[in-house]
TrEMBL record:
SMART domains (alphabetical): A1pp (SM00506)
Top-level division of the source organism's lineage: Bacteria
Signal peptide: none
Domain Macro: residue ranges: 13-193
Name of the featured protein: O-acetyl-ADP-ribose deacetylase
Lineage: Bacteria, Bacillati, Actinomycetota, Rubrobacteria, Rubrobacterales
InterPro entries, alphabetized: Macro_dom, Macro_dom-like
């Protein structure tokens, strides 16, 4: 769990918060996603790709203006989908801008849209031949998705993708900003990973 950069130290599945799903490592760390050296980091973007607060603001601040210039040319991204730009001045070569749903009580397709945002991010990564991707917790900040539920949807979507779709991914890492989010993902990890 100390290895925030490069390849993680491996533990047997079911111990700690690293697991293996087919060939890929899935791990949870607490930290700031803008420091990551993975091939791509994922941004919790809005549908206009217009920048905002939270992790989006942090990524644009750290990555410089080039990322926003590319976002403007993309002209937005529907909820549940994702778009890719370069990483500007970030250590990561790419940013995948994923648009999670605003939470409106849970009966407006939020679960499906959140899972789609994760799945479409991984599809883009695979199409671009990327081997490592770092995710924040999409939708659980300003968009208000309850983090316990969101963590389970996120991990389930990623495990399903890694098991069922063609990809060359070796590492999918969650970089969780605060202790509360980390704990929610740790608990969901115990529920989702043993099933696989
Ligand atoms: P959304 O609008 O999709 O809810 P937010 O950026 O408001 O996105 O929040 C998503 C999550 O990202 C929250 O858990 C927030 O604490 C976290 N976050 C904020 N800054 C960073 C960062 N630099 N690295 C990783 N996670 C971050």
């Amino acid at each position: 769990m100390n290895a925030r950069h490069g390849l993680p130290r491996l533990r047997p599945r079911g111990l700690g918060h690293e697991g293996r799903v087919r060939g890929a490592v899935l791990e949870l760390v607490q930290g700031d996603i803008t420091d990551q050296e993975t091939d791509a980091i994922v941004n919790a973007a809005n549908a206009r790709l217009a920048g905002g607060g939270g992790v989006d603001g942090a990524i644009h601040r750290a990555g410089g203006p080039r990322i926003m210039e590319e976002c403007r040319r993309l002209g937005g991204c529907p909820t549940g989908e994702a778009r890719i730009t370069t990483g500007g001045e970030l250590k990561a070569r790419h940013v995948i801008h994923a648009v999670g749903p605003v939470y409106r009580g849970g009966a407006s397709g939020e679960e499906h849209l959140l899972a789609s945002a994760y799945r479409n991010s991984l599809r883009l990564a695979a199409e671009h031949g990327l081997e490592s991707v770092a995710f924040p917790s999409l939708s659980t900040g300003a968009y208000g998705y309850p983090v316990q539920d969101a963590a389970e949807v996120a991990l389930q979507a990623i495990v399903e993708f890694l098991e069922n779709e063609r990809h060359g991914l070796e590492l999918v890492r969650f970089v969780l900003f605060d202790r509360r989010t980390m704990e929610a993902f740790e608990e969901a990890f115990e529920r989702v990973l043993p099933r696989h």
